[in-house]
Write a structure and sequence with these properties.
about 475 residues; 8-stranded mixed sheet; 2 domains; elongated; alpha+beta; Immunoglobulin-like; 10 helices
């Protein structure tokens, strides 16, 4: 009897071919994702180089600044007598000295000034620096001393703490009750070193102005300090008075207000900004933090930096890279299904690599020009190349241009997501919903079973009839 051989049906062949194609597409998508991972690492490296450039300029110029002051510091020495008895029973007395100081905070503090920005370059990178030119003015009410015991008071002084004293430009001008008072550094004078009373310098003090007339006495006075202070990118002020008012302006059009307090009023325009803070000690913990010698100090913060960081935006764009790849490959796959036109895996791979190179172009362009212009140039270059290539791959100018239009729309939508942080989730959700809706509507009439396998198995192939049995010859 002849053997029966199973015959592969056309439907089964199509099903295996479709599964193999999907498996190949999954593998190529994984390859593109690996390439995107390396692109993301390049962006991280470039961001690290930028941060190193900022650090290098801050080291040579002046770092971010935090200005705290003034406080009135009153040094004092408490003398106590200790009596001891030696082995022979004789009593001896010795004086024990303990040097301390207490701090008085201003009742009112008003800071008025302007941040004048400029740009320093370090290779490809531009770093914003500034000079703060302003006046600190206010009023002190000095209560009677409350220290008990045998106390000797040293010379009180107004103390200012500046994060990076290298940023002090020129010599600050100090006035107390309209009288000029010399401004000194944190080092003790020879007279202070020889003084029999306490002359300790409060921790963190960079500038001080001696007020000997108030030594251990109550009183009140007005003060003002004209100061020019240089720094890099960020400027901070501590609201340490009972009532604080900060009035800061600048020609920088895109400031970032941060810290523990935002401006009460602010005016932003292309010409710059003007911001005003009004802060009470009831809302601020600065006085308690300074008394407790805390490392943290409540402050206002102004950062003169571009709100559009090309490295952050490029990194976010790479996160959307998988969306670029999946939508493009999915579009090709649907085109193959709908038009019954085969696209070779190598062609998929070339298109995927072109999509990946877009992100390298984006970060390299944005280091020289604005992010928006860089995004436009990189998009035009990649969309133009892909459109030209797809006209030949799809054997139709209309289909190639249609795919190019779809890619242009996708790139435009992604740009909207990148620059709109507040609405990114909403826009991203709407984009994904729109893509799914378009795919569902476009494929609503496709009979997927007809393109993979039949819904019912085909009848088995009929076997050829057996030959008739030979007649038996009787013996």
């Amino acid at each position: 009897m002849p053997s029966i051989t199973s015959v592969s049906t056309p439907a089964a062949t199509r099903s295996r071919s479709m599964f193999l194609k999907l498996l190949i597409l999954a593998g190529m998508t994984l390859i593109i994702l690996i390439a995107l991972f390396y692109v993301d690492s390049v962006i991280s490296d470039r961001q690290t180089f930028r941060d190193q450039a900022v650090s290098s300029i801050a080291t040579s110029y002046a770092s971010e600044q935090l200005l705290v002051g003034p406080t009135l510091v009153q040094p004092y020495r408490v003398t106590t007598v200790e009596t001891t008895t030696d082995l022979k029973g004789a009593k001896q007395t010795t004086n024990k000295y303990e040097d301390e100081n207490y701090t008085i905070f201003p009742h009112e503090l008003a800071v008025t000034g302007a941040l004048k920005p400029s740009v320093r370059r370090h290779g490809l990178y531009r770093v914003t620096v500034y000079e703060f030119q302003g006046t600190l003015a206010g009023h002190f009410d000095v209560p009677p001393p409350t220290v008990k015991g045998n106390v000797q008071y040293g010379e009180p002084y107004l103390a200012f703490s500046i994060k990076d004293p290298r940023g002090i430009v020129g010599t600050p001008v100090m006035r107390v009750n309209s009288a000029a008072v010399p401004v000194q550094g944190a080092l003790k004078t020879q007279a202070e070193q020889d003084s029999p009373v306490a002359t300790g310098i409060a921790a963190g003090t960079n500038l001080r102005a001696l007020l000997p007339a108030l030594s251990g006495k109550p009183g009140s006075f007005d003060f003002s300090l004209d100061l020019t202070l240089a720094g890099t990118q960020s400027f901070q002020l501590a609201p340490l008075a009972d009532n604080n008012r900060f009035d800061i302006s600048s020609t920088w059009a895109e400031p970032l207000f941060a810290g523990e307090f935002l401006p009460r009023t602010r005016d932003l325009s292309a010409a710059g900004f003007h911001a005003v803070w009004e802060i009470s000690s009831l809302a601020s913990a600065t006085q308690q933090q300074l008394n407790a010698h805390s490392e943290k100090t409540d402050s206002i913060s102004i950062t003169l930096n571009n709100t559009i960081d090309p490295y952050k935006l490029s990194d976010r764009a790479v996160k959307y890279g998988i969306l670029f790849v999946l939508l493009t490959f999915g579009g090709f796959f649907l085109f193959e299904i709908g038009k019954r036109m085969l696209i070779h895996p190598v062609q998929y791979l070339l298109v995927g690599f072109c999509l990946t190179v877009f992100f390298l172009l984006l970060i390299s362009f944005s280091e020289h020009i604005g992010f928006g212009t860089a995004y436009l140039l990189a998009s035009v270059a990649c969309i133009g190349l892909l459109t030209y290539y797809l006209i030949f791959v799809l054997r139709s100018a209309a289909y190639g241009l249609a795919f190019g239009g779809i890619l242009a729309t996708l790139y435009g939508a992604i740009y909207g997501l990148l620059v709109s942080e507040d609405n990114a989730l909403l826009l991203g959700s709407l984009l994904l919903f729109g893509v799914i809706a378009v795919v569902m509507i476009a494929t609503r009439k496709i009979d997927w079973y007809a393109r993979t396998a039949d819904t019912a198995p085909e009848p088995p192939t009929a076997l050829p009839p057996l030959p008739p049995a030979s007649p038996q010859v009787p013996l």
